[in-house]
Amino acid sequence: MLRGISEQPEETPQPAPRRIFQERQRITGLPLYFQSYLSVRHSRCQEFRVYWTELRGTMLFFYDDKKALTYSQKSDISALISATNIYPDENGSAQFILMLSNGELELKANDCECGKEWKGFILTVTKLSVPPDESLLPGQLTRMHEVLEKEKKRRIMLNNCSSTSLNRKSPPSSTLTAMPACFYAVSRQEAIQMLEKNPSCGNLILRPGSDSKNYAVTIRHKLDPPCLKHYKVMSKGTSYIIELERWVILPSLQDVVNYFVTETRGSLKPFVIQTHTAKDPGF
């Protein structure tokens, strides 16, 4: 339902109930950094639309309502080119535009203070640096520095095994999206052999699904004896769905890998064969 800017509540935004927060966390698989109501207009649209908006990682998730469990739209801002200055309109709302590789995203906050916070947090997570904005308050800067450290740790966790690896082939279908370092164009049995013969390289492999259209994750838990499991990952539009008891929807394959790593608190590690220590996986 379309809502005008005048319907935006003026009270200080409060976080969603814990149940809703946990469900959103499960669905997105990303940490929450900032949230409030925003009016949003894409470059191809004529009107603004009000959303409860969450900044998670380097993704913006837009919810039709503050209590909605699932987002209605999302935008990947990881490749942010630039952000315009904050400028007020005749209603006192703070507007600014994110210049992305796929177009512009115009955002409007309820007031300039909220607008400055949004722009500051967005620049912090995309540029990995707190913006030198003298108009930001000490408390705002402190929270941005805290978010910066969290995002740096998240990136390290995602990339702790990223490097040039052997046996990386083309994904099931042509794509311009960079594949995670632990993707290998191998069968289920070949993935099992790789994990069994090279345990020091990691214990999680992303591979093509049996239908060559979707994907699968093969993991090897370090138990006694070791336990092997396989999970289907469906490609649907621009999202990926992990078929668990309750489906998990994520914006990229890298986020799929990140979900397994974070949910197991790091006990699962992406499988990467370093070039200088490469071994024959035996298939």
CATH class group of the largest domain: Mainly Beta
Q: Round the Cα radius of gyration to an integer and report it.
A: 21 Å
Number of domain modules: 2
Oligomer: single chain
Query: Helix- and strand-based class?
Result: alpha+beta
User: Percentage of helical residues?
Assistant: 10-25%
Q: What is the CA–CA distance across the termini?
A: 55 Å
Mean pLDDT: 81
Main beta sheet: 8 strands, antiparallel
Q: Note the run of SSEs as H and E.
A: HEEEEEEEEHHHEEEEEH
Overall strand count: 13
CA-based shape: elongated
What is the CATH topology of the largest domain?
A: PH-domain like
What fraction of residues sit in β-strands? 25-35%
Put simply, the count of helices is 5
Looking at this structure, what is the CATH superfamily of the largest domain? Answer: Pleckstrin-homology domain (PH domain)/Phosphotyrosine-binding domain (PTB)
Please mark out the parts with pLDDT under 50 across 5 or more consecutive residues, or reply none: 1-13, 161-176, 275-283
Return the CATH architecture of the largest domain.
Answer: Roll
Short structural summary:
The chain contains five helices and 13 strands. The protein is an alpha+beta fold and 283 residues long.
Walk me through what this model shows.
The protein is α+β, with helices and mostly antiparallel strands. The chain folds into 2 domains: 5-158, Pleckstrin-homology domain (PH domain)/Phosphotyrosine-binding domain (PTB) (PH-domain like); 188-277, SH2 domain (SHC Adaptor Protein). Helix content is 25%, strand content 27%. The strands form 2 sheets. Strands 1, 2, 3, 4, 5, 6, 7 and 8 form an 8-stranded antiparallel beta sheet that branches. Strands 9-10-11-12-13 form a 5-stranded antiparallel beta sheet. The N and C termini lie far apart (55 Å). The model is unreliable at 1-13, 161-176 and 275-283 (pLDDT under 50).
